[in-house]
What does this fold into?
Amino acid sequence: MKVKFLGTGGAFDFDAGNSSIWIEINNKKFLLDCGHTVYPALRKHNLIDDLDYILISHFHDDHVGSLCTTILHHTFFLHKPKKTKIIFPDESFKYNLNKFLSFGLGNVDEFVDFIPISETPEVKAINTFGLHVENMQSYGFIFEDENEIVAISGDLGDPEIIFSCVSRHSKKKLRIFHEMSFEHTDGVHSYYKDLFFFLDDYEIYGYHVNPEQVPADNQVPLVADHPEYLL
It folds into this structure.
């Protein structure tokens, strides 16, 4: 499984780019989240034409800010135009995603094929409703092939749910990419020190932070410091 980040920062960490992940598994190419900086990154790295599926963790701008532009690119700038395939974890999320996209696309069905997550067996969703922002839909995701499991938290105020989910999986190689914050955020993001407890048992990499603001006592390896995970 190939995991590459197009950006590792939070909403306001412009230089680090919006957190977004390119995953290649079983000859399929997935994009997880599509914030403001993602479309330019896809173009820069010549990835956009190869994209098979998009997943969205939640509807904040740093996760969906260039989603409409990416969709329109597939319709108007490919030699063989195609609809963008967006995976949805449940009907409620599909409804809200359709509503969101309608403001930028009009008739969404002309541009998008919505794919139920059950049709992509490599991916499972973790429902984190209300665990990022109260009453907001949000999801983490687990990717699995014959050799390993990769878990990605999405924005999440309490890391317990991710580790409780992966602990129920098989004993394959496991990597966890977990968002975090260097400041207390009242449960909106996971405080970096709350991840320390899991470091002895799991291979964890932190993202959604400004790598120039790392506290001296941080123990969580950052995606930004691992070139093998960066485009």
Remarks:
- The chain has a mean pLDDT of 96.
